[in-house]
Every structure is written in structure tokens, then in C-alpha cells.
Amino acid sequence: MEEIGIVAVGGYNEMGRNMTAVVVGDEIVILDMGIRLDRVQIHEDAEIDRMHSLELIEMGAIPDDTIMRDINGTVRAIVCTHGHLDHIGAIPKLAHRYNAPIISTPYTTALIRQQIEEEKKFKVNNPLVALKAGDSYEITDSITVEFISIPHSIIDSVIAVLHTPYGSVVYACDFKLDRAPTIGASPNFNALKKLGRKGVLAMITETTNSARSGKTPSETIAKEMLRDVLLGTEESHVGMIVTTFASHIARLNAIIEIAEEMGRVPVFMGRSMEKYLMAAHELGFINLPKNVEIYGQRKDVDKALKKIMTEGKEKYLPVVTGHQGEPGSILVRIANGETPFQVESGDRMIFSANIIPSPMTRANRYALETKLKMRGARIYDDVHVSGHAYREDHWELLRMVQPNHVIPAHGDLAMHSAYIEMAEDAGYVLGETVHLLRNGEVLFIEP
Amino acid sequence: MEEIGIVAVGGYNEMGRNMTAVVVGDEIVILDMGIRLDRVQIHEDAEIDRMHSLELIEMGAIPDDTIMRDINGTVRAIVCTHGHLDHIGAIPKLAHRYNAPIISTPYTTALIRQQIEEEKKFKVNNPLVALKAGDSYEITDSITVEFISIPHSIIDSVIAVLHTPYGSVVYACDFKLDRAPTIGASPNFNALKKLGRKGVLAMITETTNSARSGKTPSETIAKEMLRDVLLGTEESHVGMIVTTFASHIARLNAIIEIAEEMGRVPVFMGRSMEKYLMAAHELGFINLPKNVEIYGQRKDVDKALKKIMTEGKEKYLPVVTGHQGEPGSILVRIANGETPFQVESGDRMIFSANIIPSPMTRANRYALETKLKMRGARIYDDVHVSGHAYREDHWELLRMVQPNHVIPAHGDLAMHSAYIEMAEDAGYVLGETVHLLRNGEVLFIEP
Amino acid sequence: MEEIGIVAVGGYNEMGRNMTAVVVGDEIVILDMGIRLDRVQIHEDAEIDRMHSLELIEMGAIPDDTIMRDINGTVRAIVCTHGHLDHIGAIPKLAHRYNAPIISTPYTTALIRQQIEEEKKFKVNNPLVALKAGDSYEITDSITVEFISIPHSIIDSVIAVLHTPYGSVVYACDFKLDRAPTIGASPNFNALKKLGRKGVLAMITETTNSARSGKTPSETIAKEMLRDVLLGTEESHVGMIVTTFASHIARLNAIIEIAEEMGRVPVFMGRSMEKYLMAAHELGFINLPKNVEIYGQRKDVDKALKKIMTEGKEKYLPVVTGHQGEPGSILVRIANGETPFQVESGDRMIFSANIIPSPMTRANRYALETKLKMRGARIYDDVHVSGHAYREDHWELLRMVQPNHVIPAHGDLAMHSAYIEMAEDAGYVLGETVHLLRNGEVLFIEP
Amino acid sequence: MEEIGIVAVGGYNEMGRNMTAVVVGDEIVILDMGIRLDRVQIHEDAEIDRMHSLELIEMGAIPDDTIMRDINGTVRAIVCTHGHLDHIGAIPKLAHRYNAPIISTPYTTALIRQQIEEEKKFKVNNPLVALKAGDSYEITDSITVEFISIPHSIIDSVIAVLHTPYGSVVYACDFKLDRAPTIGASPNFNALKKLGRKGVLAMITETTNSARSGKTPSETIAKEMLRDVLLGTEESHVGMIVTTFASHIARLNAIIEIAEEMGRVPVFMGRSMEKYLMAAHELGFINLPKNVEIYGQRKDVDKALKKIMTEGKEKYLPVVTGHQGEPGSILVRIANGETPFQVESGDRMIFSANIIPSPMTRANRYALETKLKMRGARIYDDVHVSGHAYREDHWELLRMVQPNHVIPAHGDLAMHSAYIEMAEDAGYVLGETVHLLRNGEVLFIEP
Asked: What are the residue boundaries of the Metallo-beta-lactamase domain, all occurrences included (chains A, B, C, D) (predicted)?
């Protein structure tokens, strides 16, 4: 049977818990194993690291990979394209079921290793294979995976290409076509165009922002906006706190650079800040100037905040967790008055992040901002650009790769619909060359 | 009677038709005389340049200055802060009623002169006084006006300060605190702080974006976004058309610079493009490279579009009117197929503008974009930053100028409300030190 | 080839221009031939009744039935389910291409006859067959159409069922499950359940409101709201004008009844008011009390409005066209001051209609309401309930009819997506038993 | 000093924590003492009944009545207009500071008594005076309070009028002009018109829905919609659960009536259901048929739910708490699977309530609905009409009462702004006859 199967395991009906399986003859490659955090959030007392897979599947929090039982073939590899939790977060719960290595870029591999170590329920012993962007790896005699550099809101992201006897399958989840990502590699357009020229059987692509018109602004824009907010003020002595995605190393690097221009010491606080930043540092993705301070543990954080209060807020630039109002994060604790840091009238809270569009995070953010404002803080919101391609970036990638078939993934029906309409503009036909899959469905494609 | 009167003539209940009068003893200075275009738009057949003032007042299109009859005193000057129509557009209809000079910066003066010349109903013979930003002018023995540089979305904008025996009145309509406006002067913070130290009796301020959190992004951001859209593509040969505000000289200048990087010839098209650009050029605000082409008349525009079709779209970057879908604008004519320019699949239409939030412009834009898309065009929307201060810019200006009283202007109740809440954070009290005026009301302030 | 083909001709990518063809062996039945008015609206000078089909197809205004050339078989009938223009409006442009009768209920037939008579470009000579709800008609030896009563926002609406040798095809566009439609028949649940028990091969269904939660309120609710607005006031002497859909006979009937309670004479004004009302009257769907006045021609309308001004607004209840702000409609002319009717402060304008969600109608409505308010009118908006099934009505119909296959139609991708998610809850599977078609596509279903 | 002072204590900047003081010479009457629940919600561990007033004031949860220290005069009475918590919820925390009786209608008095009994921090010994709608009470020699019947979403609501030597002050918080409230009295228009004829000095009015066009639908509409949802289905045997405001006695009564038509036993569950319903029953506001069951305690509720599962869902109509997704409410416990009630596919959850527009309740509702849907429930949302006057009801009341001065209360700046614009249409002038107060401000009005 000379055809390739695309199994939509998770992330086709929703944002989060991404997982796709590609079936080539009797061999299978799994792409991503993510978690859907808002499904965890609605269960107040859920302790993920102690929960069983089946419980999490029932909650809709991780991909329902029980459907894999009905797929003929053996899983030969699990490939992860970047280190966000909606791509690697289910590994501790699901990977041990497969006798297969986990292949990802070095930074992603480091994060996966941490995930596995923090897991309390399952032992995950799959070999971890760190494959650099630009390199290829022979999974089996007939399947080779190639990693192509692509910017996203986390470093060391790639588009994965499975080269098979029946043609190539491109997996572009997630990406932006940022020619100036400030840190890390630009899109490898040569490799993508080369793929297009050689012929691609199918492309599976994220659709998060496919309804947004135009082109995702470059990370350079976020950096310039941050610089403008942090440096562009006559009230340069006030307290300023930045909060952003701990995993967004390019953003953290921009903050370090701007802090230097401000003459302030950047102080990173929070467990995840420490985790992501140190991993990036150890792998050489980021240089940390000598004066940078990093505190992961609560007592160290509080000590540092006390020092800032004593020595003067104008000397420091705290960079903290809490941009989504996560309970227990540093910024929430500051807003609750649970740390030595006193928010005073005119202090600035800079959210270098969007609000994740879920009612749960909206509520958390609202509570956080309300408390901060009641203490006199000034809010700078959305000093941020997205890491996901807008409609015209999708247009460009699609025309560059020219796949025979394209499958929207990593989104809900609204996002897929926007993608389909764009693909139709480019000549694709729904049901023939652009395919709408739902979680649990399989699409077979002939070369 | 040692007090100053602030007369809210227009623009206090709405966006557009701004006009404020400041009464000092028996002398009056008028600040701005604008038009409200969406009130004209809802009357399909209205020909403004032939209409009488009273008719336009009844339509709510220009300020109802008949209330000035009840104000004791003589108008000694009309001061305009910048050249947008909501600040100067009613001059042809109202200025002749006052025996007073019109004082504005050189670029604004040039635009006012054009307005007066185009008027068909009234003769306006008021002397035009061009006063440079940074300079002062003695209106009467007791009133001097000072112009302080401030960036906005049109060059040569100022904050006007009336120095009077009873104290200073600051008129900050419109402004952004852009430290890198790409063209023209930065905010003159020294002058503003000096005012604050000396003491200011009252500040009248725009409120357009006072509900938006944070800080207005710099014009530099718009330039970088434009550069990214125009240069950051592998499909560099396709047709590209930019449309933006003809009066936004900084933006036009950015486009010229980027066109050069692209190796394309910038071609400005449309009557207002020619008008604003030539005035800026003549006054030395902008350098036009030799290869720039500018066409105002319809037949010249069509000839140029034909040339572009013949010689190759990839050689030119047309910059045209029509960003709001205005009937008769160049882009609308292109979308209707009424020009020699053929839109082909993949051609890019770059809207370097927001959509003015009125149902009429939304409908025009929708019709325009629908027609362009049906011809295969790709839309890049909102490659733009605002020219109006966001909430934290207002916070900063307010704390810098420290007026005894602050009066929100240039907006509707929702905008004023957002401003009031910000001013309350800064210690102002509604009805005591921050005042909510409605069109037609007068506020008297004692020093 | 024992299968049935469903051809999505129009209305699958959008609201409006509905047309579906069902292929049974070598025989074809066309279901609906509608027009998409917002595509006409964006072309200001379009005169539909003089335009050629191909031009209208290119504008996206009528279904692109040129794809029918590629479908094997002969069209044996055109079946229309109700008299709205998005279901019958393209008949004057397309029906003459088919040598087939047009089958519809008596009221729909009357409206189709009017459409054909008003057409200036084409001669349409297809036989018109008036088939009563509840009756069946043998189209060919193998195909019989059955009409099942169903409420909608126009009287004499039906669900059409094609009984064929390979199974039944149900066409449920448009409907609501209103058990108290105030006029006309309730849903024929017995017939629908009987279909379900016998087995249905496929159901094609509208999806307009499938994203709205719950159940469409009954027309009774609209009647009660109208009564409350018209009778529930202490200021019972003021001028009141109602505007609503001229084709919504149940609503017009409610107004007549309420006018009687108010002691006012109902006066219907506008060409379409006269057209739809008289047709309903002639066919016996509505009783008109003796005092009802109806004026279609402009000069008669103006004369009547003059009489109302003379005799007293409190004696009359004008019911006029213009609920969407249509240029030239009676209410727009009143708002423009182009009729003898003087709007005074406190007069009430009751919109017994929603705003059709297109930027063009939003702009028209905004202009209309603004002008009315400037004259002192008070606006009562959205005194209305929808004629389209909400999500749970769809759930109920789907479970009653139990088709093997269901095909969302009459909507855009967002509407279809909401339907698909509901159908999935009911056990349907995308691509297997619930099918997403795009304009121009064909689905073949085996019994 | 012949003037009246209006002190805006709370509820002028926000929804919730309403409190106004009226100063007449050296005597003061307090109107309402409410709590703002969303300020409590953002502090997860807040236990209100054990918290001190000053702490709650700092949180913005109750009115900051410390400003009363600066008001000359003695508080002679606390008057509450109805029993919602945003009007009576702060009594347990604040009333004991005033040596004054609490005057309210009988039902409101019963609820206040419960509030006081549940309080754990303070002892409140103020005399409770139950005054019937339509009656008057002489507070002091110079001040008499009159209660005028007015419908709202809780029974026994009134407009309070203070008759003083300097004129009357009308307090219309909250109300709707419902002529068919299904239970309880209609608006007493005669009394209101009589007030208008005699002359009213000032009216303080709620503004919640002043931005919504038209007229609030009557409670009759909600009843009809509920009947349609509950009775209008062919799947009449499925499980159905209704959730609504426990304090909305008219709605509860409607449900009882409809349950009878359905042949189901209404079972009210939840502590607040029991509390409000029993109080209404004891005071004779509602007749409870013999078969009605009411369970307040958790173990009784669970027992009843078990019985329903055993005997058949089709026999019962549970009416439960949880319409806003409140943690610990019955519906939330059902959704969590913490009760014996098993939600099955097709069971109906009818929310006879709007979603309170706060991010916290939106998150709670989202979590609740998601969990219910995951168990197969069908959601009927917003089977509800508001209890707050829309714009035209405000127009009508204002023109009926014709106060010299009107003061928007009970809302935020956006709501007040909408009211002001309406009042301007009616001839009022901001700052002269319509006054915008902020929490903590005092307005003095001369007769």
C-alpha cells in the first residue's frame, strides 16, 4: 500500500495537546506530544505530575493516543519541534508507551529532560536524541527526519521534514517568518525552497494566527517597543518590573540589553525563569553579563526583592513570572503584598506578553492587574509580538513549499477555516488537496 | 474679574470639529476650528465647499460657534496646533466672522491657506501668521502664545501655551510622546518641565487613546513594520501598492527610504498626496530623491499606472490615496478596474493606516478590500502606529506639566472618562481639578 | 451507479445565493436559486434587473451554475422552499437555462412570479407549480418531492424532501422549530419523525445560527415584545413608526393586532410592503381589517404622511420600509426630511428587525439612526426574534430525522463549523457522516 | 443653609457597594449599604463574614463610609430599597456605626435580618423597620420617607422618596418599568406622576443598562422563553436542570408553574434557594404547591439527587444554585461529578440568568459549561431578561418625575455617560442639572 497516513491525535480541535502520527508502511513517527493547560486549569485541584494518563486524556488535557492501538505499524521515533508545553508537555505521560527515541533540537531536548525529571507518576526511559537544526537523522532505513531552522517564540525551533520513500512530509508547527529574530537563526528559506522544488507530498501546518491579516511583526519590533517603554520616559527613577514568557529567550536577551542601557541590573526571578534561562545559557544560546542575577527559589526571590527595596528600585530591573496572573507566580505574590517588594504609585508593570485568550487566564490577569492598580502601579500591556505566522506568512510558506496536500493542525475550527480560505486563494481545494481533520481521524495520501 | 474662561465650542462630545475659546478678561483666543467628516459622510450629496456655516452647524459637521455671541470679549486670535482637518477644516466656514489673525506653524499655515483657497462659499481674509515651534507671539499686551514642539501624525505640530496675567493655559491637542518621530522634532520636554515648575493654571488635552493601556509606539515602529512588510518577502517581484494618510509626511518619508532599499521608484498618486507632500517639500520638511514621481490629476495618475503596467510592477512602488476606501480615491478606482492597473493574484496592498472607527469608513473599507481580494490581492492591514497618546503618555504629560486644572477635550464621553480615571490616579478630583465639559459649556477658573 | 450526488452550487461559502443540485441517476433536481445582496451593495451603481447572469456570477452575487455543465444528467425541477431573495432571487437570471418547472408553495410561487415579471434582461418561461405544504409531487418516475410545513420568518415555508430510489434527501433551509408561530403552520413533527423512522439518506441543512446557544425564541416572544413597546408607555400620544421586514407576514399581522389595541390605524408604506402584504392577503394567509391602509407608490405614501401630520400622529401607526437603512426606503426619506412627516422630540422609531451583519447595512443603519436621533427620535432597536434555528433546535431536528449523512449549507465556514461540532456531539464524524462542502464541490453518497 | 447634600459614598465609580447619604440640615439619611462581590472574588481566601470593615473598605468591597466623618449631621435612618447584596450586603459591616433604624420593605427586612445573623465579626443591633410599599414613615420631624412600588429582579422593591422641607429626593435604584412583572406590584405610575406634578428637587438613579437601546423586556417574556425551552421539545423525557438567581422569586414562581405543566416535581436545591424562597413564602409573596421540594443542606441535596436518579429524571425539575459557576454551588458539584446526579448525553442545563460581566464569573461559567458539555449536557443559555431599566425606560421615568436635578448612581463612568447623553436629550445640562459624582464627593443642591 504505497501511501502515507496522517493521524490527527490531538490539537486538531483545539489549541494545545498537539500530537500527530505519520504512518509510512508499517513504521510510524510521532510528531509532538503536548499538553492543554486550560483543561488542567478548570480543575482547581489537579496535580498534573501525579496524575495518570487516562485521567488526563479524559479531561482533554493530553492527546488521546489510545487511538494509536487501531493504527497498524510500530512507532519508531517521537519528534518534537520546539520546547513549548503544548508540544512536549505530554511526554512524561505518554512517551513510555512507545519504544522509540525522542528526537529534538538540543535546547528542546534539555527541556524535555527536565519535564521527565519532574514527573512523579511515570518513568520515562526513552532515549533522547539531540539533533541540530540543519541536520538530518535516519530514523529507519526508509525514514529520515530533517530539521530546518525556523523562528518561533522559543529558541532552537525547527520545521521537521520526514523524507520517506513515498515523498516528504513537512511539519510546520509552530513558526513565524521572522528575518530578524534578534537571537537564533532566521528561517532557512533555501532549504524550504529546495523542498518545494523537489516536491513535497504533504505539509501539516499550525493555524493559530491564520485569521490575522498581514505578516507577523518581527521580534525586532517587540525589542524596540520594550526599549521605548523602558527607556522612553522622563520618570526614569521609578520602580519597573517586567514580566514575560520564561521560555522566550530572545525576549529575555532583549531585556538584558535594555537593562544595560538603563544602567539597571536585570534580576530574573521565578522557578521557570531560572530553568529556561540556565538551560539556554548552558547550551550557549545566550550570553549572560556578569551583573545578571537569577533566583529560582522563593526564599532567594524574597531576599532579592528585599535588597531591591533597600538599595533602591531605580538600580534594578526585576524580570518575573506571572504574565498570565498564574497563582503563586512572583508578580501575583507581589500584587498580594506577600513579598518585601512594595508597589508604590507610579511604579511600572510591563507585561511583555499577550493575554492567552482563555477565560481562566483573563480572570487571573484581571485579578492581578486590579490588585496592582489598587497599589498605584501603572500598567504597560501587550509590549509583545506574536510567535505565530499571520495569514500572509502562511501564504508565503505555502507557495514556497508547494505541497501536494496541506493539513491544518494546531488550532480550532475557526483557525483551520481561515487557513483553508487562504489555501483556496492559492489554488487548493477542500477535501482534495487541503484536508480538514478532527482529533482521532486518519488521512491516507497517495504519492 | 480675575479668572479665565474655557469655552467648549466643539469636539467635547465627539471626535472631530474641535474648537475651544479661552477668555482672558475681555479678550478671547480661539484654539482650533475643525470639521467632523463622518457627519458629512452620512449625507451622501453634501458638497461641503459650497455649503453655508449654519447648515454645517445643524449637521453637527462644524463647531456651533453661535454660542460665542453670549461670551463677553473680543476674539484676538485663532490659533491652530496642526494641519489635520478636525483642527483646521472649519476655518473656511467660520474664521471670517472674527477679526483676528490665524496663528499656526509654517506647515499648518500652508495647509490653512490651501483650505481657504478651495472654499467656494465664503471669503476668508484673516491674516495668516506662521509661528515656528519654539517661538512665541504677543497676541495682545496681556496674552502671549508659545508653541512647543510635539510629535503627532503630521509634521510641525505643537502644544500651544497661552501666557496670561492670570496664569498659563496649555492646549495639548493632539500629541504623542514620541522620542524618535523619524522626521521632525521630538517632544520639547525641557519646555514642558519648565512650564510645570513655573505653574500652569489649566491644561486642555486630547483624550483619543486615553483608554488604551501603556504607551503609544514610536513612529520608528511603524517604519520598521513597513520595512518588514515591503522588504521581508521572498516574492519580491509582485505588485505592491501602499496606501496611507497623505498628511503623514513622516510615513511618506519612510516609504521613500524603503522604496530605495527595494530598488523601486516611489510614485505618489492622488490630489491630496500631491498637496501635502509638495507643501512639506517646499517648506523643507522632506527631501525628495530625484526619482520620486508625484501625480495629482486623474489623467496623470492613469498615465503613470499604465506606465507601471508596461514597464513592470516590480520597478515601482505606488503610494496612493484610498486607505479608508474613500469613493473616488485612487485605490478604490483600481479596485473597481477603472484604471489601467491590473491587480493580479499575489499583488500586495499595504494599508499603512488604521481603520477610522466609524461605520461609514468600515463599510467603505470592506467594499474596497472585498473587491481587491476578488481580484487576487493580498491584504496587509494596519501597518501603522497611532499619533495619539496612550494612557501612560497622558500620565507622564500630566505629571510633567502639573496644571492646577485639567480639561479633557477632543473626544467623546468614553474617552474623557478614561482620562478622568487616569487623572484621579494622579490625584485630580472630578469637578474640582479635572473638569468634564460638554459642547456649549463654559468653565471659569480662578488663579 | 447507485448513488446520489449533492452539488454545492452556491451558499456554502457565504450567506446568500443559495443553490444546491441533487443528482439521482441521470436526473437532477435544483434546490433554491438565491441572490447575495451584499455583493450587489458594494457596487454602487449596479442595476440588477438589467444585468447579465455572468456579470452577477463574477460579482459573486448569484450562484455560479456554470459548474452544472460538468454534471451528467438533466435538470427535471427547480424547487424553492420559501420566498426570501436568497432562495428565489436568482431565478430571473438562471432559471431559463433549465427546461424544468419551478415548484414551490403558493405564497412562494406568487413571489417568484413577481420576480420574473420585474426582470428586464431575461425572459423566464418555466412553468410555475404551486405545491401546498403537506403535499407531494411526482417530478419523474423515480423522484417525488414532499413539502413539510416548517416555520421561518416568512409564511408558507417548507422543508423539502426528495424521495428517490436510493433513499430520501431532506433539504432544511431555512427553519425554526417554533411551536407558536402566531400565523401559519407549526412544524410538522409527525412527518419529520416518520421520515426518521423510515430512514433518511442525507439532510442538507442551514447553519445560520448554529453557533448561538439554546433555542430560537418563538415568534410569540417577538409579538409580546412589540406589544410591550407599543402599548407599555405612559407617553401614548407620541408619534410611533414601526419598521420591519416586508416579507415577515406574521410580524405584520402582529402589528395590525397591536395597532387595534392601541386604537391606531395601521398604515403600511413602501413598495415591498404592498407587494408582500397583498400577495399574502390574496392567498388568504392574512386578514386585513377594514381600517388598514396600504400605500406602495411614493406619491401615495407622501400624501398619507401628510394626512397623518394633519390629523394627528397619535391616530396612526405607520409601518414602513427602511429597517436596514436602505437608501430610498420610506424611513430613510423621513429621516432626511424628504417627506411631509416631521419627526419631533420623543417620537418613537421601532425597529422590529435585527441589523443584518454586513458592514454595508451597519453603515446604512448608523446613518439612518443618527439622522433620526438628531431630529429628536427615540430608538427602539431589535424588537425581534430570529427565524433561524439555534444550536439546540438543530440538535433536535438532527436527532429526529437521523439522516445517514448531514451536509451543512447556507452559511460560511464559521457557521458550518459550529454545526459540525454539534453534529459530532450527536455522533456524526466529519468526512464520514457530516460533510463540509465548498461552492463548486460535489459529494457522492451511497445508500 | 437651605440646601440638600447628596453624598456619593459608594457605587458611583463601579457596580456594587452602593451607598448614598442625603443631608438635610443637620440630619442625614443613608440610602443602601451594599457589597461589591467581584472585589471579594479576586482575593481567593477572603472570608467576608469574619473580616473587619476597614479591610473590606481597603479591598474596595464595601463603601468607604469613613468619609462620613467629614459630613456634619447625624444619621437618622438607613433606608434600603431592595434585598440584593449590592444594596444590603454591607449592613453587617457598617450599620452598627450608626445609631439609626434600618427601614426597608418586609421582604428586604427579612433578608437583612438573615445577613445580620450570619455575620461573625460585628454585632448589629439597629432596629429593623419594615415599611410596606405605598406607605410612608416619618423619620424625623422634617424628613419622611415614602416607598413607591417598582418592579426589579427581586420582589418587594421600591423607589424611595425623601420628603424634606427643601423638596423631595427620589432614589430610583434599581428598577424596571415592567407592566407585567408576573408576581408583585407593577410600577406605581400614579405616585410617580404625582411626584412629578408636585415638583422633585433631585433624583438619584441607577444607570446599569442606560446604554442599551429601547425598553427592558417584561418578566413575562422571560417566563414565555422558559416555558418554550422547558415544554417546547419532542425529547421531553431527558434530564433537565434549571439554574437561576435564588433571589428572583418571580422567576422561581414561573418555574413552579411550568413544572406543573410539564408534569414534573420542582425541586429547589442549595442554601440560598432555601433562604430566599422560604422568606418569600413566609411573607406570603409566593404560594408553594404541595409537591414542591426544597433542600438547603448539602446532605439533603445529595439525597434528593439520588432519589431523582433512582425514580427517573423525567419526573423532576431540579432548580439549583450555580448559574454563575460559583465554586461549591450545586451545579458546579454536579458538573464535577461530586453528587449522585449523573449527567447524560442530551440532558439539558437551562441557565435562566445572564453572565455577570466580570472576568471572574466568566471564568467560572466557562469552567462549569465546559465540564457539563464534556459529560454530554446541552446548554440553554441566557433564558432571561434583565431587571434593570434600558435607555427608554430611563427616558420615561425622567420625564415623568421631572426632577430639577438628576444624579446618575449605581454604575461606572460608561453607564453614567450613557445616562447623561439621554438626559441631555431630555433637556438636562451636565454640571447644572445633571451631575456626575464620584465616590467620596458631595453635591449641594439649593431648592
From this structure: 16-215
**With respect to CATH, is domain C219-380 assigned 3.40.50.10710?**
yes
Picking from B327, B365, B374, the nearest residue to C60 by CB comes out as B374
pLDDT along chain A (447 residues), means of 10: 91 97 97 95 85 94 97 97 98 97 98 95 96 98 98 98 97 97 95 97 98 97 97 96 98 98 98 97 96 97 98 98 97 98 98 96 97 98 98 98 98 97 98 98 95
CB atoms within 10 A of CB B261: 10
- The pair phi, psi for residue B438, each rounded to 5°, is -115, 155
Q: Are strands D4-10 and D19-24 parallel, antiparallel or unpaired?
A: antiparallel
A128 sits in which H/E element? strand A128-130
Q: How far lies D39's CA from each of A344, B53, D61, D436, in Å?
A: 20, 51, 5, 23
**Is the CB of B371 less than 8 angstroms away from the CB of C42?**
yes
| Alpha helices (runs of H) in D330-426, residue ranges in sequence order | 330-335, 359-374, 391-401, 413-425
Among C269, D31, B400, D341, residue whose Cα is nearest residue A346: B400
Q: How far apart are CA B147 and CA C275, in angstroms?
A: 65
Q: Which of A413, A437, A441 sits opposite C421 (nearest CB)?
A: A413
Return all residues near C98 (Cβ < 8 A) that are at least 6 apart. Answer: C30, C75, C78, C126
Q: Residue B201, CB half-sphere, CA atoms under 13 Å: how many?
A: 21
pLDDT tens, residue by residue, C171-189: 999 999 999 999 999 999 9
DSSP state of D375: T
Beta bridge partners of C442: C7
**Three-state DSSP class for residue B361:** helix
Q: For residue C8, how far is the Cα from the chain centroid?
A: 19
For residue D417, the chain B residues in CB contact (below 8 A) are 413-414, 417
What CA–CA distance (Å, rounded) separates A326 from C142?
65
The answer to whether the Cα torsion of C33, C36, C37, C43 is positive or negative is: negative
Could you give the 3-state DSSP secondary structure of residue B19?
Answer: strand
H or E segment to which residue A57 belongs:
helix A53-58
| Extended beta strands in D207-300, E state | 240-244, 265-269, 293-295
Give the residue among A35, A36, A28, A38 at the shortest CA–CA distance from A77. Answer: A28
Whole-angstrom distance, CA of residue C127 vs CA of residue C144: 17
What's the CA gap between A101 and D201, in Å, rounded?
A: 82
Which residue from A220, A108, A222, A207 is spatially nearest to A155, judged by alpha carbons?
A: A108
Matching residue, cell 499538553: A35
Q: Of the candidates D2, D445, D410, which has an alpha carbon nearest to the alpha carbon of residue D210? A: D410
Question: Taking CB atoms and an 8 Å cutoff, what residues of chain B touch A233?
Answer: 396
CA dist B384 → B23, B273, B356, B358 (Å): 38, 18, 12, 18
Q: Do B396 and A234 touch (CB under 8 A)?
A: yes
Residue D43 is predicted with a pLDDT of 87
Q: What is the ipTM of this complex?
A: 0.95
Place of cell 413602501: C270
Would you say C88 and C112 are in contact if contact means Cβ atoms under 8 Å apart? Answer: yes
Size of the C and D interface in Cβ pairs below 8 Å: 88
User: What nine digits make up the cell of D431?
Assistant: 454640571
Q: Between A and B, how many CB-CB pairs are < 8 A?
A: 88
Q: What is the DSSP string of B378-412?
A: EEE------SS-BHHHHHHHHHHH-EEEEEEESS-
d(CA C349, CA A97): 68
Burial class from Cβ neighbours inside 10 Å (0-12, 13-18, 19+) for residue D425 reads: middle
- Enumerate the domain spans of chain A: 4-215+387-445, 219-380
